[in-house]
């Protein structure tokens, strides 16, 4: 299970490049850099300086390095974007570099202890 | 390879890089998280991970940087900067 837009919420976020695209706190919009740490409710992003951003109320845009494996999985699941993922979706590839995919994720979907996210993330079937 | 195994793999790489960059405490966070993921998912940590982490303080060990490695009769002695030693047999 490589790191793809579908598995992002259950995969390791530390080490990824990210950017805050939307937030209830206007001051944190635009914070970007590398994720260096994660807690249950926050992400620590290191850009020009180290900032701790709450997951709740923040929309992140992650840059996924595209590997061959991930590209194959993406083709295989090309239609899954239409599934009920109103909060996670691809914003589109940037023009110049084709080896990076950008994924926007509502931080609320990442609210979980870092070690448990692999098991818990996703929409519960119990409603 | 499942997501959990991949996360452990990536955390090991990140921890190694963090120690090289001088961020030993950040590396500790990664090692602890990797251990927790292995525990939750009932995975055996790779041997390289077990040998290059300190059982006492969770530091990621880079020999020469924050660990000393000595050969003794029949075993390798790895001493972390925290003082804990680990011994591994060899033929
Ligand atoms: Zn130690």
UniProtKB/TrEMBL annotation, chain B:
Which principal EC class is assigned to this enzyme?
Answer: hydrolase
The record's section on InterPro entries has: RNP4 (IPR016432), Rpr2/Snm1/Rpp21 (IPR007175)
User: Keywords of this protein's UniProt record, alphabetized?
Assistant: Cytoplasm, Endonuclease, Hydrolase, Metal-binding, Nuclease, tRNA processing, Zinc
Catalyzed reactions: Endonucleolytic cleavage of RNA, removing 5'-extranucleotides from tRNA precursor
List the GO terms this entry assigns under cellular component, sorted alphabetically.
cytoplasm; ribonuclease P complex
Its function, per the record, reads: Part of ribonuclease P, a protein complex that generates mature tRNA molecules by cleaving their 5'-ends.
UniProt protein name? Ribonuclease P protein component 4
What organism does this protein naturally occur in? Haloplanus ruber
Ranked from the top, the taxonomy reads: Archaea, Methanobacteriati, Methanobacteriota, Stenosarchaea group, Halobacteria
User: Which gene is the coding source of this polypeptide chain?
Assistant: rnp4
